């Protein structure tokens, strides 16, 4: 079975159409203000209306408060919430309980112990997304094109569904899936021409490569 595909950080109607045309499974809307991919509520609402029910809409947040979540979920008609900050298992569980949506928890990975840490979210999230750990002084927690050692996921046994992010591009995604058996792959900067600007040809190429495995 082919890996599911999420294209994250979509911010224009044209690139959303490219994601839909490429038949990705999930689109990511970024609600973290420092990110070059950040969406305002009006922009997110317009994109969500354009997408309709044709694709799963995942909102990406970094340590959000309840008001921010409520506003974004309402505006963008989100199907899932992705927590990309330092949210604890308790916070993750609280978000899921309060808003009634699946929670994707991002686990930043640099060492094997980081992978093990994902198990703490077994009863607190619905999906685990392994991403590359960014440097301590980095402005963003992800979307920087960094990758980690995929060998750390070799033979992984997870109690939750999981996916792979971090430095994935049209040229390496097939190899990443083959190496890890990832059931889902997620890219943002890997399909951009410059930070925050998606390349429609790269989106198509990424989806084609991911399905080639």
TrEMBL record:
Q: What one GO molecular function would you report for this record?
A: phosphoribosylanthranilate isomerase activity
EC numbers listed for it are 5.3.1.24
Q: Where would I find the N-(5'phosphoribosyl) anthranilate isomerase (PRAI) domain in this sequence?
A: 5-208
Q: In which pathway does it act?
A: Amino-acid biosynthesis; L-tryptophan biosynthesis; L-tryptophan from chorismate: step 3/5
| Reactions catalysed according to its record | N-(5-phospho-beta-D-ribosyl)anthranilate = 1-(2-carboxyphenylamino)-1-deoxy-D-ribulose 5-phosphate
Q: Name one Pfam family in it.
A: PRAI
Please give the superkingdom of this protein's source: Bacteria
In its keyword annotation, does this UniProt entry include Translocase? no
The UniProt keywords, alphabetically, are: Amino-acid biosynthesis, Aromatic amino acid biosynthesis, Isomerase, Tryptophan biosynthesis
What does the similarity note say? Belongs to the TrpF family.
Q: Which PANTHER family does this UniProt record tie to the protein?
A: N-(5'-PHOSPHORIBOSYL)ANTHRANILATE ISOMERASE
Q: What is the protein name for this chain? A: N-(5'-phosphoribosyl)anthranilate isomerase
Q: Taxonomic lineage of this organism?
A: Bacteria, Pseudomonadati, Pseudomonadota, Alphaproteobacteria, Sphingomonadales
């Amino acid at each position: 079975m082919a890996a599911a595909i999420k294209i994250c950080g979509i911010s224009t109607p044209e690139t959303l159409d490219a994601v839909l045309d490429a038949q990705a499974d999930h689109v990511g809307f970024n609600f973290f203000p420092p990110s070059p991919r950040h969406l305002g509520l009006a922009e997110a609402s317009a994109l969500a209306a354009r997408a309709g029910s044709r694709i799963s809409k995942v909102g990406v947040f970094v340590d959000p408060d309840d008001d921010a979540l409520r506003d974004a979920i309402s505006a963008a008609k989100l199907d899932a919430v992705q927590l990309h900050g330092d949210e604890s298992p308790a916070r993750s569980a609280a978000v899921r309980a309060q808003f009634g949506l699946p929670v994707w928890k991002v686990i930043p990975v640099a060492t094997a112990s980081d992978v093990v840490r994902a198990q703490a979210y077994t009863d607190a999230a619905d999906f685990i997304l392994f991403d590359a750990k960014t440097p301590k002084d980095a402005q963003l927690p992800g979307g920087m094109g960094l990758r980690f050692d995929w060998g750390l996921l070799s033979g992984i046994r997870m109690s939750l569904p999981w996916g792979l992010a971090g430095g994935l591009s049209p040229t390496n995604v097939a190899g990443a899936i083959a190496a890890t058996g990832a059931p889902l792959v997620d890219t943002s900067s890997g399909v951009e021409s410059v930070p925050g600007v998606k390349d429609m040809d790269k989106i198509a190429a990424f989806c084609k490569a991911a399905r080639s495995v």
